[in-house]
Amino acid sequence: MGKTRESAEKDVEHIDYKMVTFSLGGKDFGIDIMKIAEIAKFGGFTYVPNVPSYVKGVYNLRGDIISIIDLRGMFHLPVPDTESEQTHNGLIVRVGESMIGVVVDSIDKVVGISSTDIQPPHPIFGDINIKYISGVVEHDSRLYIILDVDKVFSKETPPEPIATRERTETGAPPGDVPGPVRGPTDMRVSDTAAELGFVHETLATFLRFYVSEVNSAWVEERFRDWRTNRAGEASQLKNAAEAEKFIAPFFSPHTGEFWSESYASEFSSIIPETTGGTITVWNPGCGKGYETYSLVCLLREKLPNKQIKIWACDIDLLSISTAPNLVFASAAAPDYFDPYVHESNNGCSFDDTVRDAVLFEYHDIVNEQTLPPPDLIVARDVLSFLAPTDQKRVLADWFEKLKPGGVVIPGTHERLPFDEGWKRLDGEICAYTK
Amino acid sequence: MRVEYINPFVEAAYNILKEVLNAEVNRGELYLKSTSMPVLGVAAIIGLAGDVEGRVLIDMDKPTAIKIASAMLEGMDMEPITELNDLGKATVTELANMITGQAVTKLHNLGFKFDLTPPAIFTGDNMEVSNADVEALIVPMEVPQGKIEINVAVRERT
Asked: Is the pLDDT of residue B16 over 90?
């Protein structure tokens, strides 16, 4: 007896999260109960012109005018045919200061769970963009997807291009607004958007390559080429090998090898003029160090009187372990290396003047680290392999730490967001200043 | 963390554990962490200063600590312990000292100068350690007595 009571108490103790559950397009969802103002049945919305199709209109809730959103429309889930147009099941959700009415298929019940049981969403979730999901939880052998209300309705997320495009193509749900008749062309564009969305997810899953404003222009263009070249075949990326093939042209020139003379001289022209006797460089994502050593040699040549300090790091332990004592064949080295290389039986290596200029670290740039402010950040094809939130954070950190007049060099196919203050420099190599 | 520092710590931990426990030691995959980390229950900490600043934490749970201390004591023909008493704590502290000492010796031979602080030991439940601005290298070690984590957080003096 005592034992059962104890275990019952233990169960009660564990329930620290309650959610209202409901179904959308036949699937189970939940929203944190603290975000719900009330559960309601409503209908007779007042139509608002020129809004996205998932906005049903506005509604007078006892004197307060609230917007009504159809989550099924927002998430592209099917609307059951049986539903009458008169009354809808809905929730009134609190988002910050305001209330929003949400139309769903049906309200289920309130479920109490332990927040430790909530599991993070899997990166390849189907219908709903993963950023709207705060987790997944199992209760009573049903799986509930917990929506993050603040993210779903936050003002500043202009849903990314795919979603927007898809939405305009989907048109209004029947019976609501006299939308354009959906022809085959519309369908095709919408398919493309969905496929491109799928490509984004595949790249993130297989290669941890995240599409964001840093690289979306390239990915879209690459996807068009990819489709054209694979006419007749499925354009989706089915496995890691295909994802790698898709991404192969993305990498900057001379990835994983020494920089050629011509690339180095082009690069040399964008090195900022610095005052003081030292030039400090950050080189995240240095891999085996080929890039870093090329950088030291060209900086030595260009700035013979300055002290060079390069902080190079990578998250791949195997690659970076070999970097401090890199040995290579003399044929692999371009001519401008000559003064700094000595040859031995095992192959060529760099002399101490070059080696002492670099400090290789096993480091994840997502984690904070204290380094002296840099004149130059060489981070080719690094940002694209960080999750979008980390990209933003790392960029903000660079913007703060970079010395005035300093230069950031992302990958050849990467673009830094202009609205955050980055200015593109003229020239072949993609370089930015603040 | 500077690449040159990694191997000495990994090798030292491996050598010392193998030597004092006289048993098979398996190294897990190394990884980096920067958020606050739970401490398993018994943690010996040693500070580092000199060319770098930071600390080494040798972390294990209590049953593992008792078994390891017992194994070390038996190796010296002493009675094994059944609870984590002063002798047990001193033994675990000594293990931390040996590992860090050997690592620092190796680093010294490579030309890096480190000083050590005397070790201290923490025991308790639900402990966390956090150094938000230094990321830690975690070296997990599997020994027959259980799991030991060597948690190294050092950074260059700038």
From this structure: yes
Q: Is the pLDDT of residue A129 over 60?
A: yes
Contacts of A281 (CB under 8 A, 6+ apart): A295, A299, A308, A309, A310, A311, A374, A375, A376, A377, A378
Residues A365 and A297 in one domain: yes
Mean pLDDT, rounded, for A74-89: 71
Mean pLDDT of B43-54: 88
Residues spanned by the domain of A17: 2-153
Task: Tell me whether residue A255 is in a domain.
Answer: no
Q: Is residue A167 part of a domain?
A: no
Tokens of A67: 């917007």
* Higher-pLDDT residue of A103, A182: A103
The CA distances from residue A149 to A23, A133, A234, in Å, are 15, 9, 36
Q: Which of B54, B50, B58 is nearest to B135 (CA)?
A: B54
Which is higher by pLDDT, A86 or B14? B14
Whether the CB-CB separation of A384 and A215 falls below 8 Å is answered with yes
Candidates B19, B107, B110, B20; CA nearest to B56 is B107
Q: How far apart are CA B34 and CA B49, in angstroms?
A: 20
User: What residue ranges do the domains of chain B occupy?
Assistant: 3-156
CATH of the domain at A14: 2.40.50.180
Cβ contact B135–A369 (<8 Å): yes
**What is the three-class DSSP state of A20?**
strand
For residue A30, the one-letter residue type is: G
Residue A171 is assigned to a structural domain of this protein: no
For residue A161, tell me if it sits in a domain.
no
Average pLDDT estimate for A207-227: 86
How many CB pairs below 8 A link A and B?
A: 49
pLDDT band, very low/low/confident/very high, at A224 (cuts 50, 70, 90): confident
Query: Over chain A, what is the mean pLDDT?
Result: 80
> What per-residue confidence (pLDDT) applies to B132?
67
Task: Tally the domains of chain A.
Answer: 3
The answer to whether residue A355 scores a pLDDT higher than 70 is yes
* Mean pLDDT to the nearest integer, A199-223: 86
CATH number of B3-156: 3.40.1550.10
Kindly state whether B107 is in contact with chain A, defined as any CB-CB distance less than 8 angstroms. Answer: no
Read off the amino acid at residue A277.
G
| Residue A265 sits in the same domain as residue A383 | yes
CB distance A310 to A338 below 8 Å:
no
CA B31 to chain CA mean position, Å:
15
Q: Is the pLDDT of residue A171 over 60?
A: no
In this complex, the residue of B3, B32, B132 whose CB is nearest that of residue A323 is: B3
Q: Which residues face B137 on adjacent strands?
A: B32, B152
CATH code, domain carrying A267: 3.40.50.150
- pLDDT tens sequence across B49-94: 888 888 899 999 999 999 999 999 988 888 889 888 999 999 999 9
ipTM topping 0.90: no
Say whether A368 and B135 touch across the interface (CB within 8 A). yes
A308 and A203 in a common domain: no
From A300's Cα to the closest Cα of chain B, the distance in A is 22
Question: A373: number of CA atoms within 13 Å, CB side?
Answer: 10
Q: How many angstroms separate the CA of residue A374 from the nearest CA in chain B?
A: 13
Q: Tell if the CB–CB gap between A371 and B2 is shorter than 8 Å.
A: no
